[in-house]
Amino acid sequence: MTGTYDVAIIGAGSAGLTALREVRKQTDNFVLINDGSYGTTCARVGCMPSKTLIEAAIAFHRGKALGSFGVDGAERLVVDIPAVLRRVRRLRDGFVAGMLKITDDLKDHGIAGRARFLEPQVLAVGERRVHARKIIIATGSRPVVPKEWAAFGTRMLTSDDLFEQETLPSRMAVIGMGGLGSEIAQALARLGIEVSGFDAADQIAGLSDPDVNRQAVALLRAEFAMHLGRAAEPVIEGERIRVRAGNESAVVDKVLVALGRRPNVDQMGLENLGVELDEHGVPPFDARTMQIAGLPVYIAGDANRHLPLLHEALDEGYIAGYNAPRNEPVCFERRVPLAIVFTDPGIAVVGQHYAELDRDETVIGEVDFSSQGRARMAEQNHGLLRVYADRNSGRLSGAEMCAPQGEHLAHLLALAVQRKLTVRELLRMPFYHPVLEEGLRTALRDAAGKLGGAAVPDLGYCDRLDDGAFD
In order of start, what are the domains of the chain with their CATH numbers? Predict the structure, then answer.
């Protein structure tokens, strides 16, 4: 069997479904090829079920803290882990169903199976040959599981199967304190599970600012054991698992491996594209067009390892889907980098990381939330925010934080960086009282004081009115 199409999309995840929506606007001659279940990593096993679990943990944790507000009876609260997981799956299934509506009317436009490149414009799907003028690779990713951990079978979990568990044991280790590992470890600890976190690095959750990282590590260590700076290795002790990192170890019943995700590009025949692949098997591509090395092939989402985040996958799917039906690709400006980790307090990185800064050309403003008014009212007065600005122009370049409601502060700062605002321009916005954003103002004023020059008020000056009574 053969088929010829204007566009073939491989993969029905976030990037693939977004590309599908754009391709449909320009041609009816398309096909979506998918191997396995339809639906996105985010909705099925990623951001949506994980944040549902985190919200349950936050609710229970806040409930136990009610005594601080003068509310009695909090000590009688108990958590029902099976009920929490049932709720996670119920909501997860609803999120997945919403995504699948995009594919309801595919009919002959859908092919089930694994695609392999024979040539840049020819795919093999089983015995079928698919010819397409343009092809979009949006095959997503899967968890990285080293063989020493995979040997534990059902006692080893990843984010792909964590939420399918009917219940969870009383002791767990989390291997990898990146974004997912950090937030899930804290959530499990708050739900009453004895958690031990491990990471070979000293930094957690994508942070590179040493001061912010130090605060984040200290705050999370107050809730669960965390062993950093040495690679973890498993030791089998009968039915138990001992996880060892240097001289430190923990005995647990199950292990959650959160060591990142691997792009699903192996066994796709990408070597037949005629371009050099990197060590992960990913071909070179332009992140502004998603096109692979001038070929009639585009790659979007987790498959390209560029920015494995949901909002980036949606943008990349849009760019690929917009460009594929056209004769010449359009170059798009990408958004300011934004990464958020849903710990409490929230961890976020906006724009330039600390590690990317030219320290001699950068001023840093900071605020410690320990004495911030609104944070104290909410019993959330902990964390640190650091903003970075160019020393010469005063323009904001980025920020790192471990701060209460950090996800909202991060979005405000992302807008400021994307709009190329200076520290003093951002200080001119209104800050209501009492709000957590007043903490951001403190950090901005700290940065402004280090920019040098004459003191400038937060308010802008009026234009002259040519009237002596006012001017």
Answer: 2-142+262-323 (3.50.50.60), 147-259 (3.50.50.60), 338-450 (3.30.390.30)
